[in-house]
Design goal:
It is a single chain. The protein has 324 residues and is mostly helical. Helix content is 56%, strand content 7%. The protein has a three-stranded parallel β-sheet. It has a two-stranded parallel sheet with strand order 4-5. The radius of gyration is 22 Å and the shape is elongated. α8 links the parallel β4 and β5. α3 packs across α12, α4 packs parallel to α13 and α7 crosses α8. It has two domains: 211 residues, Rossmann fold; 72 residues, Tyrosyl-Transfer RNA Synthetase (Orthogonal Bundle), CATH 1.10.240. It binds adenosine-5'-diphosphate (ADP) and tryptophan.
Length: 324
């Protein structure tokens, strides 16, 4: 069973990314053959500064490794280091109906937000299909927002297989409906596009500022409160031990508890939770040459699989015009 996923290096990682997707993927490493990559080519649809893209890519790789992706257990690489993905994108595009891409919600939403409707943005799902099909992935764990991209990938794979003969495994999306949406400091979904994130690796002062500004209601300290309706408690639950969660629920219901006190406790919990990861990240940041080597070795492993697929595809489409 091959599990594959990618993440764009287009901003700092936040608690939503960690609990929504990364934690599960890291835990998956021991159970399946995991392929994980940094989607730097996809990030080009929103990052128009070469230096920022390059720095963002290495930092995303370091963050992932610091949080527990183990390049010994998983195949871990940077998307652009396997050039066959671009070649496959072109092959796939010739059996992909324009109408399929025009129906993409993500494309329509991004344009509505004012992102330039460049051809790259329109082609985003074809490149994503190439990522998935090149490695003959069985399962793709993604957040709910990526559901349609996976449906498009399946359509593209089926159409290609029907046109040229069976080449690609048809992948399944793995969407965990139980993963709660992590709220941001304003109570909406935590997302870098809403500017409401608590970043995993921010400085303590910055983290404190964010946590102290989580929006709460104005129930006075002495009155009982409903933990189920509190954004601070929703985050507290992600970090505290089961006994501490029950105690905290009691304190909410009894009254006499101020939101400020819970926020202070939350800050310490979050900070301590990520301390070992922060230390590991610090080491990796000071050792980028080593990280580069690890990523190149990962790209070699990924490429071995990519080449197997692309050779089959070249024969099928006829771009390999001689017999070997
Ligand atoms: P953002 O919304 O900050 O741009 P991305 O779209 O880059 O985040 O998300 C990367 C991954 O993290 C996706 O799989 C997504 O489902 C997950 N994710 C992002 N925000 C949250 C959240 N608030 N709660 C749960 N999962 C999230
Ligand atoms: N589109 C994904 C996101 O924004 C990132 C991504 C690119 C991806 N290629 C992928 C995810 C292939 C899974 C499989 O989250």
């Amino acid at each position: 069973m091959r599990v594959l996923s990618g993440i764009q290096p287009s901003g700092s990682l936040h608690l939503g990314n960690f609990f929504g997707m990364m934690k599960k993927m890291i835990e998956n490493q021991d159970k399946s053959e995991l392929f994980v990559f940094i989607a730097n080519l996809h990030a080009m649809t929103s990052v128009y500064n070469g230096k920022n893209l390059a720095n963002g890519t290495i930092e995303a790789a370091i963050d992932f490794m610091a949080l527990g992706i183990d390049p010994e257990k998983s195949v871990f690489w940077v998307q652009s280091e396997v050039p066959e993905v671009n070649e496959l994108t072109w092959y796939l595009s010739n059996t992909t109906p324009v109408g399929l891409l025009e129906r993409s919600h993500s494309y329509k939403d991004k344009i509505a937000k004012g992102i330039a409707p460049n051809a790259g943005l329109f082609f985003y799902p074809v490149l994503m299909a190439a990522d998935i099909l090149l490695y003959q992935s069985d399962r793709v764990p993604v957040g709910k927002d990526q559901k349609q991209h996976l449906e498009i990938t399946r359509d593209i794979a089926i159409k290609f297989n029907n046109t040229y003969g069976e080449v690609f495994t048809i992948p399944e999306a793995e969407i965990d409906e139980n993963v709660a949406t992590v709220p941001g400091i304003d109570g909406q979904k935590m997302s870098k596009s809403y500017g409401n994130t608590i970043d995993i690796f921010s400085e303590k002062n910055e983290m404190k500022k964010k946590i102290m500004s989580i929006v709460t209601d104005s129930t006075p300290v002495e009155e009982p409160k409903d933990p189920g309706k509190c954004n601070v408690f929703a985050l507290y639950k992600l970090f505290a031990a089961p006994d501490a969660i029950t105690d905290m629920e009691d304190k909410y219901r009894k009254g006499g508890l101020g939101y400020g006190a819970v926020k202070k406790e939350l800050l310490e919990l979050v900070w301590n939770y990520f301390t070992p990861y922060r230390e590991r990240r610090h080491e990796l940041m000071n050792n980028k040459a080593e990280v580069r080597k690890i990523l190149l070795a990962g790209a070699d492993k990924a490429r071995y699989h990519a080449v197997k697929t692309i050779r089959k595809v070249r024969k099928k489409v006829g771009s390999q015009y001689f017999k070997d």
